[in-house]
Amino acid sequence: MRADGARNRRHIIDTARALIAANGTGVTLRAVARRAGVGTATVTRHFPTREALIDAASARQFEICTEVIDESLADPDPWHGLTAMVDRVFDPRARRHDMPVAEMLDAPAGQRAITGVCELTRRAQEAGRLRADFEPHDLLLLMRAGESLAETSPQAARRLAAYLLQSFAARTAPLPPGGQPIHPLTGVAHFPPEQGQTAVA
Questions:
Q1: Which of 88, 140, 80 is CA-nearest to residue 114?
Q2: What is the sign of the dihedral through the CA atoms of 84, 90, 95 and 98?
Q3: Tens digits of per-residue pLDDT, 59-114?
Q4: CB–CB of 85/79 below 8 Å?
C-alpha cells in the first residue's frame, strides 16, 4: 500500500473510533466519510462493509490498549505500573477516541487485554501494594466508569483517580464480596481459569 493510502486508511480508522466512542457501533460508512473529509468511495475502497471498518477500529483500539497494558507490565514497580494504567484510563484527553469497553472486550482480541489486566493485578498484589481482595474485573469496571469522563477536566479526572488509587492500596479495610468475575455489561465471565476465577457457562 502506498504511503498516502496508508495514511488515509489510518485516518479513516481513527475517525471511526471517535464516532464509535461517541455514538456506538451503529455508525455508517457515509458518516465516517463525512467526518473524515473524504468521499464514501474512498472509505469503501479500504473497507467494503461497515463490519469491516468496525473490525479494523476494534483492532486499532486493541493495539493501543495492549500497548498501555504492556507498558504497565514492563514497569519494574508493579504498583507504579498499575497506577499509570489507572491514570491513563481516567485521562479524558487520552480517552477521547477510545471505543466503549463492551465493544473492546467482545472483540476476538479481548482475551489478551484481559490476561494482561489479570497479570498486572497479580503482580501488584504479590508486591504487597495492592489490596488482596481487589479482583481483575474491578479494573475492567473502572475502565467502564472512565468512559463517562470524556467531558471532564483533566484536573478533576486526576483527582478522582487519586481517590480511587488510595482505596486500592493494601493498607485499607476489606471490601464486601464482589460476586462472580463477569463482563462489566453483559454478565458473561471473561477471565482465564488459570487466574483463579470460576468460568460461567
A1: 140
A2: positive
A3: 887 787 788 889 999 999 999 999 988 888 777 666 555 555 555 565 556 677 78
A4: no
Q: Which of 67, 196, 191 is nearest to 139 (CA)?
A: 191
Cell numbers 494482561 correspond to 116
**149-170 pLDDT tens trace:** 666 777 887 888 888 888 888 8
Distance of CA 15 to the CA centre of its chain: 17
Please write down the long-range contacts of 73-79, taking CB distance under 8 Å and 24 or more positions apart.
73/116, 73/119, 73/120, 73/123, 77/127, 78/120, 78/123, 78/124, 78/126, 78/127, 78/129, 78/130, 79/124, 79/127, 79/129, 79/130
In three-state secondary structure terms, 67 is: helix
Cell numbers for 13 = 480508522
- The reported pTM is 0.63
Higher pLDDT, 185 or 102: 102
